[in-house]
Amino acid sequence: MRTFFFVLLGVLLLSGCKKNPPNPPQKALLVEPARNSECIPVQKTDDGNNLVRFRWLPGNHSESYEIVVTNLISGLVVDREQRTIDLTLPLEEGMPYSWFVISKNSQTNETATSPIWHFYNPGKQTEHVPFPAEIIAPEPGATVFKDIDNEVNLQWTATDLDDDIEGYSIYFSTENPPEALIALLDTDDTSQKVSVVSDVVYYWRIVTVDALGNTSDTGVLDFKVF
């Protein structure tokens, strides 16, 4: 009986000493450059680029941040890691960009990724390429239910600083990349129903075109059907 008491006491002491798992970092809240806007550069550089300031608000339990900035025309990616919540980068003027922030904590492998924002770095251009369509549903990589008609509704929104979007080309397939053009929609149509079957991964992308023939591409998106 005495031995059992000491064993029980040891178990209770050990369980009381267990550490709680570390809290995962939360998403950063992006501040500037503002979403779907033309940014205001800090200054021009000697080589003709613009210095652009990035700023965000920290998510809870975040120690450091990885900021990813992509030139949407050339595909050039700038990737920086730091502990502060702002960063100034020289970027090519007259180009559209995307950016997002990944929050990290050294106590856990979990990370949190902010939404992706788009902006224009001003230059001498007199027209703007439309920003890539922003996906509402299904979220990339999601697993979704089909409706009673065995369909899934693709939904998105799009922005052009010139406000001259003409329409969208929708590509959808079980092949990656999707090459099958399934719909040509005008600017008022920002959804498209597609027929699906269960346990299949589908790939899709949207090409946005404006009145001057400028285009942008979401890149390949995917979802799986229950």
How many structural domains in the coordinates?
A: 2
* Extended strand count: 19
Strand content: over 45%
Mean model confidence by pLDDT: 93
Q: What's the total helix number?
A: 1
Separation of the first and last Cα atoms: 55 Å
CATH architecture of the largest domain: Sandwich
InterPro entries: FN3_sf, Ig-like_fold
Protein name: Fibronectin type-III domain-containing protein
Organism: Pricia mediterranea
Characterise the protein shown here.
This protein has 226 residues and is mostly beta strands. The protein folds into 2 domains: 93 residues, Immunoglobulin-like, CATH 2.60.40; 92 residues, Immunoglobulin-like, CATH 2.60.40. Helices cover 7% and strands 46% of the residues. Strands 2, 5, 6, 8, 9 and 10 form a 6-stranded mixed β-sheet that branches. It comes from Pricia mediterranea. InterPro entries: FN3_sf, Ig-like_fold.
What's this model, at a glance?
This protein is mainly beta and 226 residues long.
Fold topology:
Layout: H1 2-16, E1 29-32, E2 37-38, E3 43-44, E4 50-57, E5 64-71, E6 77-82, E7 86-91, E8 95-104, E9 112-113, E10 117-121, E11 134-137, E12 142-144, E13 151-157, E14 165-173, E15 181-186, E16 191-195, E17 201-210, E18 215-217, E19 221-225
Parallel strand pairs: 2-10, 12-19
Antiparallel strand pairs: 1-4, 3-4, 4-7, 5-6, 5-8, 8-9, 8-10, 11-13, 13-16, 14-15, 14-17, 17-18, 17-19
